[in-house]
Design goal:
alpha/beta, 21% helix, globular, 4-stranded antiparallel β-sheet, 2 domains, binds S-adenosylmethionine, S-adenosyl-L-methionine-dependent methyltransferases, 251 residues, Rossmann fold
Length: 251
């Protein structure tokens, strides 16, 4: 098992993560998580989803590898001591974490893309299956529209006090079905760029067929597929695929 590489560390940009991830998917994941009173959040990041779920009374076990992301998460938790007994944050990788128990459901938000090849996808799904109860639900999103190079382009701007932070994103397809994603953040004050942070990361390129195959090999059965977080059904060709699958490995 290889350890997490710096390519996935968010080491320079974790403190900016929440400013730009504005995906409206908390209600979506709450819909699944609230079918029981506890849930497993893999690749939990800064707790963007886990914290609102805990605020609504759920117990959330969070797995997150890079220390930089966990530090941001912990800073937020330190300001919310009332949530301390509802959130259990561990350092771990989807492929190998072990919390010695099962959950009724698990989700990955924005994390499956970080699995770089079929071996990682399979190992992660197998390990997640080991943490799910019989017929337990796994929900995750995966981006299928990664096949092209994309030039570095503006991808959001946010005001923070007297400063503006601009984000740029670009991507380059690499051999072996991977894509190098470049993130650039520019901090602007009084019209001047006062800081520029650049970070590169790798994501895996996959297809719907491949996702189905990996799930089947790991003992999951696909039960629903969505094209967005408003529960609209997936249609062939959509670039965002959200999968709901059931753990059948106990059969
Ligand atoms: C796009 S962020 C999403 C964070 C959070 N789930 C959210 O929706 O706000 C992807 C997260 O997956 C984590 N991640 C990447 N590779 C992982 C792996 N092999 N196992 C577990 N988490 C991983 C990253 O560290 C990062 O926090």
């Amino acid at each position: 098992m290889t350890s997490q590489s710096d390519d996935r560390s968010y080491g320079k940009t974790a403190h900016l993560y929440d400013l730009f991830d504005r995906k409206e998917n908390i209600e979506f994941f709450y819909h699944y998580a609230s079918q029981a009173d506890e849930v497993l959040d893999i690749g939990a990041g800064t707790g963007r989803i886990a914290i609102p779920l805990a605020e609504r009374g759920l117990q959330v076990c969070c797995v997150e590898p890079p220390p930089a992301m966990r530090r941001e998460f912990e800073k937020k938790l330190a300001r919310r001591p009332e949530l301390a007994d509802r959130i259990w944050l561990i350092s771990g990788d989807a492929r190998s974490f072990d919390v010695h128990r099962t959950f009724p459901s698990a989700f990955l938000s924005g994390c499956f893309d970080h699995f770089l090849d079929d071996q990682e996808r399979r190992a992660s799904l197998l390990n997640i299956g080991r943490h799910l109860a019989p017929n337990g639900i796994l929900v995750f999103d995966v981006f299928l529209g990664l096949m092209k190079d994309t030039p570095l382009s503006p991808a959001g701007r946010v005001g923070v006090g007297t400063r503006k932070i601009r984000r740029f994103v670009g991507g380059k397809v690499l051999p072996g079905q991977k894509k190098e994603v470049t993130l650039v953040f520019e901090v602007v004050q009084d019209g001047q760029i006062v800081e520029r942070i650049k970070e590169r990361g790798l994501v895996g390129i996959t297809s719907r067929g491949n996702v189905h195959r990996a799930l089947k090999e790991a003992g999951f059965e696909v039960s629903r597929e969505w094209r967005d977080y408003d529960f609209k059904p997936y249609q062939e060709g959509d670039s965002l695929l959200i999968v709901e699958a059931r753990n059948q490995s106990w059969r």
